[in-house]
Each structure stands twice: as structure tokens, then as C-alpha cells.
Design a protein that fits this description.
The chain is of the alpha+beta class. The chain has four helices and nine strands; from the N terminus they run E-E-E-H-H-E-E-E-E-H-E-E-H. The radius of gyration is 16 Å and the shape is globular. The chain starts with 15 loop residues before the first strand and ends with a helix.
């Protein structure tokens, strides 16, 4: 993977021309990653939380942080290219092969400002029912490189941090549309959970 240390100056590069189509993209990592395409089917959510940008970034980029609001277990590396494995059913699926993100990597990070990581948009089986996205065959679920990714900006705000969250790479077709619809609701719940953690931490500091 051709990953540069700086992403077009990061802050200055707000839009990158999509190398595979004429669609303009907000993505900061698209031109730096292989096998990814901005299809135009993007989940975009903004959320304000009471944590500082430093703390909000840590909640997304460390095992301790992720397990406080997101998932019961994880294996998150430190640098671009390292794993970003989230485990939603660690007892039954300790590697995240059916209900986790085994194979996902950190794509880019700028401490306290920006984080990008790959994501898996389907479940490997129906064991978790409605608590998991649509089930897909392993050939679709584990495609390499993974076709979808998340980018998060952490922007200073008076009350803490304004999060700009984007999930790119959903494709055309009924199965992909169902997955995008599921994750639109799921990511909102995740961000609500993050806001709740930040709110509790703020109260605890008083």
C-alpha cells in the first residue's frame, strides 16, 4: 500500500479528485489506498461531544477507549498499516471472522485531529440476529483489500469536540443498500454512546 505520512497537508486537502470516476470526494485517504473507490454511497454524521479532541481521539484509537463505548474487545495498533480489529462477540468469535473486523487496518492518523480505518460491512453468519448487519458470503465479506473505510475528523468546539464522521465505499445492489441502511442507524448509536461516555466523564471531573 502506498501510504504517505502526510495526507496532502491533511488540513488543507479537503477534497481529492476521485481517481476512478468523475465524482468529487471528501475523502482524505482515497488516492493513497489501493482497491478503494468512493461510490457516492456515503454515510455522513456530525456529532458534538463533551470530551476534548485529545480524549475523543483516544476513545477511537485505543483498546481502552473503544471498549468504553463501542465494543467489548478489540486489537488496535498504533500506526498506519496496523490492525484495527473490533470484536463484537469475542467469546464466540475471538478473531472477529464473523462478527468483527479481522483484516481491517488503520489507514491514516493525525493525533487528536484525524483517524481513518478500514471496515467490514457484513456479518459472517446470523448468530447475532438484528444486532449485526446483513449476512454475506465470505468472498464478499472478506474481500481484499476491504472496500469500505471510515474517516473521522475531531474538531475543537466550545463544548468539547465536533466529530465529522464519514463511512465510504458502499456499492450498488440490494445487499449493499441493506448494509448501508443498517450502518446508518448503527453508527448513530455508536456516536450516541460516545457522547454518553463523554458526558459521564465531564460530570465525574466536576
Amino acid at each position: 500500500m502506498n501510504m504517505r505520512r502526510t495526507l496532502c497537508g491533511l488540513a488543507a486537502c479537503a477534497f481529492i479528485a476521485n481517481a476512478w470516476s468523475a465524482v468529487a470526494s471528501e475523502s482524505r485517504v482515497l488516492e493513497l489506498t489501493q482497491g478503494k473507490k468512493d461510490s457516492g454511497h456515503t454515510i455522513r454524521i456530525e456529532k458534538s461531544v463533551a470530551c476534548t479532541p485529545q480524549r475523543t481521539f483516544a476513545l477511537w484509537s485505543t483498546d481502552e477507549g473503544v471498549q468504553a463505548f463501542f465494543a467489548p474487545a478489540s486489537r488496535i495498533g498504533r500506526a498506519a498499516g496496523d490492525e484495527y480489529t473490533i470484536l463484537f462477540s469475542p467469546a464466540a468469535d475471538p478473531e472477529g471472522l464473523s462478527h468483527g473486523t479481522k483484516g481491517a487496518r488503520i489507514l491514516a492518523k493525525s493525533p487528536d485531529r484525524f483517524l481513518a480505518f478500514e471496515w467490514i460491512t457484513f456479518a459472517g453468519d446470523a448468530a447475532l440476529g438484528r444486532n449485526a448487519p446483513p449476512v454475506a458470503a465470505a468472498s464478499i465479506r472478506n474481500e481484499s483489500p476491504l472496500p469500505t473505510w471510515v474517516e473521522i475528523d475531531f474538531l475543537p468546539a466550545d463544548a468539547g469536540t465536533r466529530i465529522v464522521f464519514r463511512h465510504y465505499g458502499f456499492r450498488d445492489g440490494e445487499l449493499w443498500s441493506a448494509s448501508q441502511a443498517w450502518f446508518t442507524g448503527a453508527w448513530q448509536q455508536v456516536l450516541d454512546g460516545l457522547a454518553a461516555v463523554c458526558g459521564r466523564e465531564k460530570v465525574a471531573k466536576r
